[in-house]
């Protein structure tokens, strides 16, 4: 049976970036309280106010989504820059290669999902909820981050309402179906053993 935890926006932990260049709002980390060098997975938000390099996280895969702002271009491992905006699909890339960010026009806020390579995999989906949406076949761990609006979530043996900035963490969620109802922009994060 899934174990549900509601994470409210007011409970998130603020901390400096690994490279000292800004601040991160940590939504959730596993194991709880793990150091940046020891986590299995980590979900966070960061405001990027200047161009520059990303922190390097050895052995980590990451996916980035733009939550607010005009967007930013990422030059990943020497490849041509990719422009990410609020409308872009979440972008997955290794966190242990050289990545440089160039802001399009002013600061942005991003959603950052990281998992330890070889132990876990993850997927991030941007979902616009306008009425009722069904999400089927969840993996071991499922997080629903409500970025804008409000959403009611229902699954076998559970129900919760999320406001703007809140997150549902469902563990042992393999195979469950999740009903989403409301007017919201959400990010669905699924994780499981590799």
TrEMBL record:
Coiled-coil ranges from the UniProt annotation: none
Superkingdom of origin organism: Bacteria
InterPro entries listed in its UniProt record: RmlC-like_jellyroll, RmlC_Cupin_sf, Uncharacterised_HutD/Ves
Record-linked Pfam families: HutD
Protein name listed in UniProt: HutD family protein
